[in-house]
Design a protein that fits this description.
- The two termini are 25 Å apart.
- By secondary structure, the protein is α/β, with parallel strands linked by helices.
- The radius of gyration is 18 Å and the shape is globular.
- β1 and β2 form a beta hairpin.
- The chain is built from nine helices and 15 strands.
- A seven-stranded mixed beta sheet has the order 1-2-10-15-14-11-12, sandwiched between helices. It has a six-stranded mixed beta sheet with strand order 4-3-9-7-5-6, with helices on both faces.
């Protein structure tokens, strides 16, 4: 199980039975729209608040993942989920509706990959037959908590990112045959480079992403070319460029593979005003569980490494002038298609 110093190898290859990606209207106008399961036409989703809308997104994605695999939620042993809001209220309130045994997580925007890694660990060890990994975010609720209310209409610098409205879920099992499997994971370290600007999270998170990529390649004695694609969570333009430069500085030959970022893939820079790109827990979740899983199921991609990135700040830490500690977790997914 333990491989190297901070990685796990899943010899039993937990299967991803199904995934679901549900998004809001803005994401539905982006280049990946055809790869999402459901696109909502308005941000409120018929709810009374942004926060209740975010909760509804998570409920919808988890239920849809179960339906697609023809699994009743009563069969699911554990739900592993988290979000950006204080005390992960979206996940906790959704878990009360779903009535699935719940493990709440907080990894900021790395939560999609953190939950996937831990769900795979449970299934691989025999501690669960079925485990759901899920997360969500909502542009309006995140803006209200971390920055300024949407109604305020504040100006943002080019380094700022646009929080994705959506939710992604993956159902893992020890009973799957064929199809994509989670084969390995690397748990990241918290890296703090002293950056205090909450409008420049890409720069803050990039060193953590690079540290985890290095650790994964070192622990498994692999070259980047082992993967068809290495994709980070939500570094977006600013952070991605820093990561490219750092990897080059550390002589990691990333030219062997495609190196992309989910935050640069979900929106159209030419038609959508998103500053540096996307962020939010749902960013890597909906891109991975929608767009990338579609390519894995078809065999267009055979091996990918998804590196979820997260800025571990809070409104209180920001108000007190603290720097932004960051983390990244990596999960290897292989298609099973020869």
């Amino acid at each position: 199980m333990l491989h190297g110093t901070q990685s796990w190898i899943f010899n039993n290859k937990p299967a991803i039975l199904s995934t679901a990606a549900v998004v809001g209207p803005f994401e539905g106008r982006g280049p990946l729209a055809e790869d999402f399961d459901r696109i909502h036409g308005e941000l409120m989703l018929g709810q009374e608040s942004w926060e209740k809308a975010e909760r509804a997104l998570l409920e919808e994605s988890t239920q849809l993942a179960c339906e697609k695999a023809n699994i009743r939620k009563e069969q699911v042993n554990f739900l592993l989920a988290g979000d950006l809001l204080d005390q992960i209220i979206s996940s906790s309130f959704a878990a009360s509706t779903l009535a699935i045994p719940f493990i709440g997580l907080f990894g900021a925007c790395s939560t999609a990959i953190e939950s996937l890694a831990l769900a795979a660990l449970l299934v691989n060890s025999g501690a669960a037959h079925y485990a759901l990994a899920a997360t969500c975010s909502h542009n309006a609720s995140a803006e209200k908590q971390f920055r300024y209310p949407t109604e305020y209409g504040s100006q943002k610098p080019p380094t700022a990112q646009f929080t994705v409205t959506g939710s992604g879920a993956a159902l893992l099992s020890d009973k799957g045959v064929g199809g994509p499997h989670v084969t390995a994971a690397t748990i990241g370290r918290v890296i703090d480079m002293g950056i205090t600007d909450p409008f420049n999270m890409g720069a803050a998170m990039a060193p953590a992403a690079v540290d985890t990529i290095q650790a994964h390649l070192r622990d498994f004695r692999r070259q980047p070319g082992y993967y068809d694609l290495i994709v980070t969570g939500d570094l977006s333009k600013v952070g991605h460029q820093i990561a490219v430069e750092l990897l080059d500085k550390h002589q990691i030959p990333m030219q062997q593979t495609e190196f992309k970022d989910c935050g640069m893939m979900i929106y159209d820079y030419n038609t959508q005003q998103v500053q540096a790109g996307a962020s939010g827990c749902a960013c890597s979740a909906v891109v991975t569980y929608g767009h990338l899983m579609k390519k894995l199921w078809s065999g267009e991609l055979k091996r990918i490494l998804v590196v979820g990135t997260g800025a571990l700040l809070s409104p209180i830490s920001f108000q007190q002038g603290n720097s932004i500690p960051c983390i990244a977790h990596a999960v290897a997914i292989e298609s099973g298609v020869s």
